[in-house]
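Render this sequence as a predicted structure.
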Amino acid sequence: MPDIKHFDPDATLETVVRLFWRQGVASTGIQDIVTATGLNRSSLYATFGGKQELYLAALHRYLEQRSQPMFRRLAEDERGLPAVSEFFDDLIEARCSGEYARWGCMVSNAHAGAESSDPDVRAVLDRHHQELRHAIYATLVTARARGQLSPGSDPGASADLLALVAYGVNLRSRAGADAATLRRTVATALDSIAGRAALN
């Protein structure tokens, strides 16, 4: 007979995402996962594998359900620099207020942790970075076509800069930086590439 699961693996994985996201993988043990999900170890192992496999599944879920929708919206926005500005406003709002305030970004947290040395984790982090940079780059190409970039601004180099600023927002917000400070930093970065009145 097929194995019948008496729990929802999808809901369980979402619980695990939040646990790893809030606490970090190094600070989260199997017993923490058992307590948070209400499942026994054998059910967890049979469904997901060990802690490392569970963490990778959680990291993939975070990328697919939280990061990629934001990246798609940005890449498809035809407004140029105002779209980038709104992306950062939304990012700062999410990182500094609401249910997930001060949790940072699960992917950025992984960049800063020892888990980043694992090849499978590194592959997810690299994919996230490429998609973030691509979304910013696509919007900056639109901005250039609209005359919103300063004459010396290069969309590729500017996308690299703004991707790093996004990681900085994620990490500094987790460390307690306030929204106003983060917004000033983002505004300075955008001003460095913008032409006159580009954000109006």
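Summary. DSSP finds nine helices and no strands in the chain. The CA atoms of residues 141 and 155 lie 6 Å apart.
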